[in-house]
Every structure is written in C-alpha cells, then in structure tokens.
Amino acid sequence: MNDRDLMFLPAHKQRQMIVDGDISSVEMIEASLRRIAELEPRLNAFITLDEEGALATARAADRAFVAGASPGSLHGTPIVVKDLEVTKGLRTTLGSTFFEDWIPDYDSVAVERLRKTGAVILGKTNTPEFGNREETFTNVAPTCNNPWDTTRMPGGSSGGTAAAIASGMCSIGTGSDGGGSVRLPASFCGIFGHKPTHGRIPRFGGQAKPAYNSAGTSGPMSNDVRDSAILNQALAGFDARDPGSVKADVPDYLSHLEDGVSGMRIGTTMTLGISDVNDDVATAVENSWSAFSELGANVEPVDIKFDPVPRDAWWTLWTAGQVAMYGYLAEERPEDLMPYTLDMINHGKSLTGADVSAALRDVQNLQLKMHQLFEEYDLVLAPTNAAVAWPHLDPPSKIGSKVNSDEMAGINYGAIPFTMVFNSSFNPVASVPVGFGEGGMPVGMQIIGGYDDDATVYRGSRAFEIARPWSGTRPVVS
After folding, report:
1. Which of 112, 130, 220, 249 could form a disulfide with 228 if both were Cys (CB 3.0 to 4.6 A apart)?
2. Is 181 a residue of the active site?
3. CATH number at residue 137
4. Residue 30: domain span
5. Does this model's pTM top 0.90?
6. E strands, 28-77, where?
7. 82 counts as catalytic
8. Which residue among the candidates 157, 176, 425, 431 is catalytic per the annotation?
9. What share of the chain is helix, strand, coil (3-state, %, to 5)?
10. 293-320 pLDDT tens trace
11. From the candidates 108, 158, 181, 214, which is the catalytic residue?
12. Which position among 24, 25, 32, 82 bears the catalytic label?
C-alpha cells in the first residue's frame, strides 16, 4: 500500500494494521511524515511539526506493544492537534506572537486523554490568533490554504487540522469550536467534524486567564465517522479542573453507531430562520435529505424562528470573554495583536453588565427553545455554511439574493450564519460532506441533535456516510 492510500485509511483501520503486525507504528508515522514533506509547502497546515518527537513516541509504542502492553484505542496512529490545545514539551503558540516561543510544562485535559489512546502527535496545526477568525491566518505562520484550491481559505479556526486531514497527511485530529471552528473548516475542506455537547470534553488547560466558557469545546475532526466517535469517547468525561464539565457518565457513542435512522423523526431547514444560502449550497444540501427518507426516517420540513437572532447574544458573550481572557495583552502591546482580536477586545470593553445579562437571558431562552424542538425531533438537518470556501480575504458579495455585508471584527458572518447558534445552545452537531458547489468546492451539512445526544448525531452521520460515501474524491493537493 502506498503512503497516500495508507494515510487516507481511517485511523481505526490504521490501528488494526499495527495491531495485526502488518506495519509498525514507526513505519506508519514515517509514511505520514513523507506525506507532510510533500504537501505541507503548498498548504501551511502546521505551525509546529514535531518529527523527532513523533518518531520517538512511535518507537516507544512499538516497544510497549512487543512487550505485551494492551494497545489503546488509537495505538500508533498519526494525529494532529490544533495549536490552541496546550501540549507539554511542544511549542504552543495559540496562533499569537505573544506565545510564539512558549513551551508548556503541562497538557490540556484533551491532550492528556489523547495521549492515553496511544495516538502519536505529529505536531500543532495552524489556527488564527486565539481561534478568532473564520479564516486561518496569523502572524506566527504562513496563511493556511485549502487543499481543493490553494487560492482559497480552508475555514477557521481549525483550518490547519482540516487541511491536514483533507489532503491525507493523516486521517484524524483535534479542533476546537466556539462559533463553528470545527464544523466550518470541515465543511469547507470536505471532511467530517463533530462539535460535542458543551461540557462533555473538559477545557482545562491554556494560557488565557480563566473566564466563563460560554461557547467553546474541543472536538474531533476526521475523514471517518467511527474515528470521530472513538476519539470523542476517549476525550469526554468529567474533570474537576473545569467548572463547566458535565459530571455524569459518558454515553457510549459506539455501541449503536451502526443502528441506522429507520423510524427517526428528522426535521429539515435550509435557513434555520436566520439566512438564505447560495444556490450551489442549497442544491447539495437538499439533495442529501432524500438519503434519510430512503433509510427509513420520517423526514419533514421544520419551521424555526428566532427572536432575537442568536448571533447577537453569542457575539456579546464571545467578545466579553475575549476581554476576560486576553484583555491584558491589549493593555500591554495592542500593536502585537491581530486586528481581529483587538477589535473583539475593544468591542467587549464597550459592553455593560446589562448587555451581558441580557445576552445570558437570550441564551437561556435559546436553550429552552432547543430542548422543546428536540422533544419533537431526533435530528435536524441544515446547511453548515451559506457559501463554499472563498478566495483568501475575498468573501462572496451576495448570499442568496441579498448583498453580503454582515461583518464583525472582519469575520464575514453573512457567509457563516448557521453554526454559532449551537455553541450557545450547547447542542451536539456534526458537519458531513454532501457534495460540491461553485469551483468544485465541498459543501457541508449540519446534523444537529438534542442536548447530550451525541450518540444519535453519530448514528445519523454514520447512516449518511454509508448511503452517500464521501471518501472517493480527493483534493487537488493530496
């Protein structure tokens, strides 16, 4: 098997090859590193590549396995970690020049648990500063490119992880999602991304000053649904160091993965009551809905209306959080912050306590609305974004029939209006590839579940993956 075919295998199949003795972990990692050497100059998926550390970890994994150690759930397989996750002994920049030389002496909870799976960390992937853009550019690394068209952006803020997986440098990685940062790059790059139920993966670990976590969570990214469920299972679970961590047993995301969607109640919406979408996105998403009917689900349109639109509450809490976490940097050296981060901090400083209180009220009303919606439906299907990936810093001028002029701190909200709502509502959501639009660029669809029902989201995603497999077409850079 050549390196390309090997790296496009799901991680759980790579692990099985290692366990069966068909290949060693070292050989697997060497194949991944050869792919990175070939493709990375065109993509800039990494901020820090750790070849020496990865090979050392692989050698240790091989020795332990020969000595009789029980292999972990991702034993010996290559994985990438977004550079917002803190990694002991490995440079962690958070996409910021303030931390470009920081080598932590501890791991985030997600990385602690990731290491226990036996996966081998290749390095840290490209991210905008503190995850604050829908595109992936910063001052500590070259701009990340989309493997389907390197003149276009891969999405953000987990753009580096998405580009690495989509191009076949590896088959699995971690991202984080505070407003769509797993789902958007997954959609723009044609891979699978899952935003878990808020609080299921603890968020302890990081250089930011502690602040209320109103939206963000780590999340798995992969070419394969089962891989994502395996990684999510390993990362989820209570940790006392995170006050927002859910203190309850973690559901089993794998035992019913193949059970399908027959008999499920599934709602469909093209707008989420928020925004129109471009025709190419609408066509691909609508064409995917019939797969669920063919699989035996009861599929019907659902009329969703929000008052107020959830974006404003999300934006208030997000920018207030930026002040709490990084406001001190704006006091020290504002000129060294990326303009989008500084704009967020300045907006957060303009807020009053009443503004934040009203946002919290609106978020709680949103959560109530979602609880009520998922009393009627098992899943809801909606576009991940309103447009396909655009050329760097050149978002579409129109969304549907309307001029696209909705920006916040440079973020083109008009093209990505559908993801933030579920960060505020805490619902689990996946983005699955459903086809291609303008310029041959991937289109993604959100599969949304009820609170703490990630297992059903995975079931629906897996059923769709079987019915409409997305793994046959590869990007130009692969």
Report:
1. 220
2. yes
3. 3.90.1300.10
4. 3-467
5. yes
6. 46-49
7. yes
8. 157
9. 40, 15, 45
10. 999 999 999 999 998 999 999 999 999 9
11. 181
12. 82
